[in-house]
């Protein structure tokens, strides 16, 4: 995606009557039995969030689609593969789990209207997209991300993660509109005047005097802190389209990321070496004891130690 592709264009593309298929969608590439399995998981796990939500019928189609696409990505890029977990699989697991969580957060923010949770879900998705965009083409950052320092006070002492605001600004260069939406959401999330006015839906300064509000929409209870007026409904609907566009962009970015790091993640030789190093380091004394015993008894040392290591691997596998 380029700077010429604006956020508004992406939102317009996503407003079609029914979702359209794209090459970066993994669900359609699975075989029949795999699609059936994911459909069953969706039906019994996430479908209830879509059905109970108060979003439009058209938006429900997109939410349903994205639940399945994210699960298909999880199945192909995290679940499939060797039993040993690697740095790269851990990061993919986090990205997909958070994206799935964001879908659920957004859907549940409508019943009743919950501005705080809605903004958290939207900001989280923007930040995820910004992180994945940073990973793409930056193998060194992708490789070391899990172990980077997070304390901004030590930024001059240790390799540190890039500040999330910087990541969002860099993402905005790729797809116009991210920074504006992120800043708007931040103003509403924090205890700023913008948030106060939004909750009260106050419009004109001249109409605010003492305790008299321009549009008194305050409740006598806290179940629905934001009133469901024409203004708030339009705002939530518009922002929901933005969120769906961000999820679409996430799938696009994640597809590129998967191709970049999967080669490293799925290298059998590298995995075998890492596994053997882990085992021999953890059980060094025990392996030496087996080797010494084999020497004393006249057994083949390599055969004895290999059998012991295989038993250890089986033990570790079944334990986990």
Description:
The protein is mainly alpha-helical and 320 residues long. The chain is 68% helix and 0% strand. The protein contains 13 helices and no strands. It has helices at 7-14, 32-52, 57-79, 87-108, 115-135, 139-144, 164-174, 178-189, 193-200, 230-265, 268-282, 284-297, 301-319. Helix 4 packs antiparallel against helix 5 (115-135). The protein is elongated. The two termini are 41 Å apart. The model is unreliable at 259-266 (pLDDT under 50).
- Dominant shape: elongated
Helicity level: 55-70%
- The number of strands is 0
**N/C terminus separation:** 41 Å
Low-confidence runs of at least 5 consecutive residues: 259-266
Oligomer type:
single chain
Report the radius of gyration as a whole number of Å: 25 Å
Largest sheet: none
| SSE sequence, one letter per element | HHHHHHHHHHHHH
Residue-averaged pLDDT: 82
User: Structural class of the helix and strand makeup?
Assistant: mainly alpha
Task: Supply the number of helical segments.
Answer: 13
Proportion of beta-strand residues: under 5%
Please describe the structure with a list of short key phrases separated by commas or semicolons.
13 helices; 320 residues
């Amino acid at each position: 995606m380029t700077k010429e592709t604006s956020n508004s264009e992406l939102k317009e593309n996503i407003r079609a009557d029914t979702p359209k298929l794209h090459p970066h969608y993994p669900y359609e590439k699975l075989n029949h039995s795999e699609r059936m399995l994911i459909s069953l998981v969706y039906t019994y796990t996430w479908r209830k969030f879509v059905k109970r939500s108060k979003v439009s019928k058209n938006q429900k189609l997109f939410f349903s689609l994205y639940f399945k696409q994210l699960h298909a990505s999880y199945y192909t890029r995290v679940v499939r593969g060797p039993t040993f977990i690697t740095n790269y699989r851990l990061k993919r697991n986090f990205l997909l789990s958070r994206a799935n969580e964001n879908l659920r957060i957004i859907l549940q923010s409508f019943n009743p209207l919950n501005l705080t949770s809605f903004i958290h879900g939207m900001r989280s998705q923007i930040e995820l997209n910004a992180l994945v965009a940073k990973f793409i083409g930056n193998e060194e950052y992708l490789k070391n991300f899990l172990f980077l320092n997070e304390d901004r006070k030590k930024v001059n002492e240790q390799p540190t993660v890039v500040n999330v605001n910087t990541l969002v600004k860099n993402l905005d260069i790729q797809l116009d509109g991210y920074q504006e939406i992120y800043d708007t959401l931040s103003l509403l999330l924090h205890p700023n005047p913008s948030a106060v006015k939004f909750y009260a839906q106050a419009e004109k300064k001249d109409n605010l005097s003492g305790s008299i509000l321009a549009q008194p929409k305050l409740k006598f209870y806290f179940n629905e802190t934001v009133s469901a007026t024409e203004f708030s409904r339009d705002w939530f609907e518009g922002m929901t389209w933005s969120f769906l566009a961000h999820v679409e962009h996430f799938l696009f970015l994640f597809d590129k990321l998967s191709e970049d790091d999967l080669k490293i993640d799925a290298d059998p030789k590298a995995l075998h070496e890492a596994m053997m190093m882990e085992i021999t380091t953890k059980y060094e004394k025990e392996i030496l004891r087996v080797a010494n015993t084999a020497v004393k008894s006249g057994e083949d040392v390599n055969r004895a130690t290999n059998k012991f290591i295989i038993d250890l691997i089986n033990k570790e596998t079944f334990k986990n």
